[in-house]
UniProtKB/TrEMBL annotation:
<feature type="transmembrane region" description="Helical">
    <location>
        <begin position="100"/>
        <end position="129"/>
    </location>
</feature>
<keyword id="KW-0256">Endoplasmic reticulum</keyword>
<dbReference type="InterPro" id="IPR003388">
    <property type="entry name" value="Reticulon"/>
</dbReference>
<feature type="transmembrane region" description="Helical">
    <location>
        <begin position="6"/>
        <end position="27"/>
    </location>
</feature>
<keyword id="KW-0472">Membrane</keyword>
<protein>
    <recommendedName>
        <fullName>Reticulon-like protein</fullName>
    </recommendedName>
</protein>
<dbReference type="Pfam" id="PF02453">
    <property type="entry name" value="Reticulon"/>
</dbReference>
<feature type="domain" description="Reticulon">
    <location>
        <begin position="40"/>
        <end position="181"/>
    </location>
</feature>
<dbReference type="GO" id="GO:0005789">
    <property type="term" value="C:endoplasmic reticulum membrane"/>
</dbReference>
<keyword id="KW-0812">Transmembrane</keyword>
<keyword id="KW-1133">Transmembrane helix</keyword>
Length: 181
């Protein structure tokens, strides 16, 4: 099995371009009889090189892009912390289910296959949704209602269990206090 390594295409592009530029210069020197100073001025990529010399990064655009990246990173960090700390039970359960599903599927398929399938799904789902918008919205409303109902049941049970535990704790604390007196 081949291990992961740096792709060979950048090396190939650089070497092929080097061969091309060298071949053009040597051909012009051999058949044109030009001096070496004229050959430097007649570079095959002279127009591209002239444009590249004038390339600059706009400082304001760079600051805006950096600010946007930092803001996005902050939002992502706060969202991840919210999910990890279970601030919203429903959101944390959905994240856990999604991660479990991703982990399970990744044991069946390679990463390349999953990325390929993800790209296909990414571009086909919007078209399928547009064609079946009414049906999908109706089914999503039913599923959302069922999930909200189940989360409500779970929350009410958790509140009941917490109340029972607190009552037992308060009762045992009161009994311990009476014994000490």
């Amino acid at each position: 099995m081949r291990s992961a390594s740096v792709p060979a295409w950048p090396f190939t592009v650089v070497v092929l371009n080097l061969v091309y530029v060298g071949a053009v210069k040597l051909t012009k020197a051999f058949f044109g009889g030009a001096n070496t100073r004229a050959l430097e001025d007649e570079h095959p990529h002279a127009a591209l090189l002239a444009q590249a010399r004038h390339l600059q990064v706009d400082e304001a655009a760079a600051r805006t892009a950096t600010t946007m990246a930092v803001t996005a990173a902050g939002v992502a960090t706060r969202s991840a912390a919210s999910v990890l700390l279970a601030e919203d039970l429903g959101r944390s359960l959905r994240a856990a289910a999604a991660l479990y599903l991703l982990w399970t599927v990744s044991t069946w398929f390679s990463a390349k296959t999953l990325i390929g399938l993800s790209l296909i799904v990414l571009f086909t789902i919007p078209a399928a949704y547009d064609q079946n918008r009414e049906i999908v919205d109706k089914q999503l409303a039913i599923a959302s209602e069922m999930v909200d109902q189940q989360l409500g049941n779970i929350k009410s049970r958790a509140i009941g269990i917490r109340a029972d535990i607190m009552a037992k704790f308060d009762g045992s604390a009161a009994a311990a206090t009476k014994k000490e007196e």
